[in-house]
Amino acid sequence: MASAPLAGIRVVDLSRVFAMPFAASYLADMGAEVIKIDTCDTRFMDTTRILNGPYPDNEPGELYWEQGGTFQTLNRGKRSLTLDLRSEAAIEILKNLVRLSDVVMENFTPRVMQRFGLDYASLKSVKPNLIMVSNTGYGHSGPWSNFGAMASALEPTHGSGAFTGYLTPETNGQPASAEVPNKIGNSYTDFLASLTAQLAVLASLMHRARTGRGMWIDLAMYQVGVSFLGEGVLDYAFNKRRTRRMGNRDDGMAPHGCYPCHGEDEWAVIAVRNDAEWKSLCRVMEQPSLATEHRFGNTESRLRHQGELDDIVSRWTSTLGQYEVMESLQAVGVPAGPVLNAKGLLTDPHIKARGLFERVEHPPETGLGHRAYLGRGWKLSDSEVRMGGPAPILGEANEYVLGEVMGLDDAATRSLREAGAIGETAAGARVPEVPSLERQVELGWTVSYDPDFQRILRDSGQA
Amino acid sequence: MALGLLEGIRVLDMGPEIAAPFCARLLADYGADVVKVEPPGEGDPARLTGPFAGDEPHPEKSIPFLYLNTNKRGVTLDISCESGREVWSGLLREADVVVHGFSPQEAESLGLDYDLLAQVNPGVVATSITAFGLTGPYRDFSATDIVICAMSGLMYHSGDSDREPLRNSLNQSLYVAGANSAVATVAALFHRMSTGIGQQVDVSAVECLSTHLVQAVPFYDYMGAIKGRRPVRGSGFEELMPARDGYVVPSVQGSQPWSTVAELIGLEALQQEKFESGAGRVEHGEELKALLIEGLATWDRKPLFQASGERRLVFGMAQDAGDLFDCPQLRERGFYVEVDHPAAGVAKYPGMGPTLSEGPFEVRYPAPLLGQHNREVYGEELGYSKGQLTALKESGAI
């Protein structure tokens, strides 16, 4: 049987919110033992445990901090140790745990880690070959080093808005332009930082295996974001070009865009790369005469007539479903596909065949049953990589970590519990009030909802 | 000290375009010895992709190519012709990683499918990056960046709720696929250290982007709700809003009370109790948005961003490439590194995302000229004689 790449690697995960918890859960998928440092005090809890939801059927239960779907996705396969980091005893336990671990991941601001005495220099003195990721908005050096950050505000700050934005169509001979920046959505920068952290940790593990040396990874999300837009910044370095927004168009393909389909908020994209594909599109649209029209004869001339082309293509797609557009054009080799939403992904036959979603069984007290979670975009043929289980119940590994891993006896564990340094129940918990789904639709938080979603998921083999 | 985390790992970057070269570039930045293998003649099609340095179309001046291939050496080789195949076997036997971005059909016709690679080098980690992966009903479908963005689910959530979904630009799907590939490849390399086995890495660009939907998927899976694009009706917080000289993202996140936010923006009318809670800001969203626009109109982006950071708030601002290039934060962190390229000239290039304690990012090679290292790699490393190299050149293999 195949083994897991990171079997035997222990990770202490002090991180919160999205980027680093997600990175650590990937390390868990790869076989690392990831110990999430939780806390019982809801004021200091990882915000995804208590703020993000979504809850089963939109009804948070008594143990709502175990029930958030986003929290579950970002923390699957981990263990949970609760520590109140304000106590010296907890800091001491943490340091002893780091001594027995390989990797530490955290995303506090520099001053918090120093205050706790958990900065890299301090931890290195207990674990000389430690690999540690310190994730911040802007990095541990430089004039912005103490600025906090959230991905949704970081994304345009690191330049994505300079390259993303709607086109205002051409009018009265004015060419189409895109003056207003837009956002990619979904806290894009978090995922870039998550990937960058995973790669840096894996490369550092290779390095440590060969040299015995540790590593401190100063991960600035801002800097990471710019590294994914490097060609845009290099264009400025060479040509002083500041932005290049083009809506859904492309400077080397036409027609190219996102077109309305038959249903409500249903769209398909099409990208015509060359003249042969243009002729194929015309045949599929049953408008063969377009293929011989001189003004659409080559890419250059089609780029000059994109407004007109978009109208022609939109008229055709409006009569079809998004999958019909995909099937008819893919049959003749033209790149095209549906704009899928989460429901579309969960019900798509290819995604199902690929096994992107993995089913996880939850402990009964969570009331979650079995659920499908997003796995990884890659597969290894001869290593075992998979979700090891659900996100951990608060403090479920207290006994395991303190006893089995660290060798504390029962009396010591008991006195820690009595002193409030560890625990298994949330303090200050108050079941959140969530707006009804009808209200969420009114507010624009959701587009719509399917009361029979469980049946839809079952029919697609995802429930 | 140069960054040598992956020192001694030989990577063959077979291209084309963005995803596989970006994967190989990341490995190169960590110290791997990356040889870019291009078809003789025109080379990697990325060489024809603009914009170009000096806006002058030239195969050695493509800006995407320069960015994606810095820190690599380059050779030319026709791996499908007979004399080229023998050279290819020699290269492959010495390789730890082969990474390519060809479709399953193209890879098979080039002889890059895993079974063939493993016959020559059973220990190789062979990374294939495709839109849909190597299995499943869509495996042979055609795709470009916008198709990947659409089918991943990311695009549906990008843009405004009252308009069409919006593609995020600069081929982000292919960069994200490249970075995922680097993660998976190094995981396989690390595993090989203990097991000795090579393997195939099958990366789907669509699925790489799908993993960003950590909110939208549970929304459906937990309660049947479809999360859409950003509502245009909200209070304006966490969104791009106009300031005097461009756009900013005002934010209430960051654990500071509302009064700090209102005080920063500096408009008296914002200091109202009804705006203090999240629920209140939702309920009075339209009124708040109008006040916010009024307040932001007195601010330029950078002073507002600076003042926000000093108050421990987390506002953002829309920066363009020029802002990023001149950014004092990136400059002080040594992010930009000067590179002297024989055809494109000297420029400061963006460096690595993370900053590592073992040493600064270093540029060992500018992006290779087409076939620049043929003699070095084939002659000095594989032992081909001058005469043999001439014969290979005449046959069109290199």
Characterise the protein shown here:
With 463 residues, chain A is an alpha/beta fold. Chain A has 21 helices and 13 strands. In chain A, the strands form 3 sheets. Chain A has a 6-stranded parallel sheet with strand order 3-2-1-4-5-6. Chain A is globular. Chain B is of the alpha/beta class and 398 residues long. Chain B contains 17 helices and 13 strands. Chain B has helices at 19-29, 63-69, 82-93, 104-110, 114-120, 145-152, 172-195, 205-210, 216-223, 258-265, 278-283, 285-296, 301-310, 321-325, 328-332, 374-381, 386-394; strands at residues 10-13, 33-38, 73-76, 97-100, 125-130, 199-204, 225-227, 241-243, 246-249, 316-317, 336-341, 345-350, 354-356. Chain B is elongated and about 85 Å long. The model of chain B has no long low-confidence stretch (mean pLDDT 96). The chains are: A alpha/beta (463), B alpha/beta (398). Chains A and B meet through helix 3, helix 7, helix 8, strand 6 and helix 9 of A and helix 2, helix 6, helix 7, strand 6 and helix 8 of B.
